[in-house]
Amino acid sequence: MKLSEKAKEELIKVLESVGESAKGIRIYSSSGCCGPSVQMDVANQPQPGEISVNIDGVEFYIENALTETLEEVTLDHNGFGFLMNGLKKTGSCCG
User: Among residues 10, 28, 62, 68, which one has the fewest Cβ atoms lying within 10 Å of its Cβ?
Assistant: First the structure.
């Protein structure tokens, strides 16, 4: 996964606002009709089944099952929220 400069700035702001209770960003999946729905949350440490990856100075805890899915993704921020550019959706109900 890559990180845009804007996304990096916003993630650092989020982590600073949470304080000591969060050291990184957890990326995990939940089920959805278009394949896994990728979610993000703040976290203090990786959980079992996650890898810890530092990308441009931001610590990420990524669910093992998502590492291949996120290989070609660039995490960006458009001023309103985070975007995962390049995330390929799977599933039959997606248009």
Answer: 68
Burial readout 47-74 (b: 16 or more C-beta within 10 A, e: otherwise): eeebeebebeebbbbbbeebeebbeebe
Please give the pLDDT value at position 36.
61
Neighbour tally for 3: CB within 10 Å:
19
Q: Per DSSP, which regions of the chain are E strands?
A: 2-3, 24-30, 37-43, 50-55, 58-63, 74-77, 82-85
Under the banding of pLDDT at 50, 70 and 90, the label for residue 74 is: very high
How far is Cα 57 from Cα 63, in angstroms, rounded to an integer?
19
Give the domain ranges of the chain.
2-85
pTM of the model: 0.86
Mean pLDDT of 4-25: 93
Domain 2-85: top CATH class:
mainly beta
How far is it, in rounded angstroms, from Cα 84 to Cα 93?
A: 20
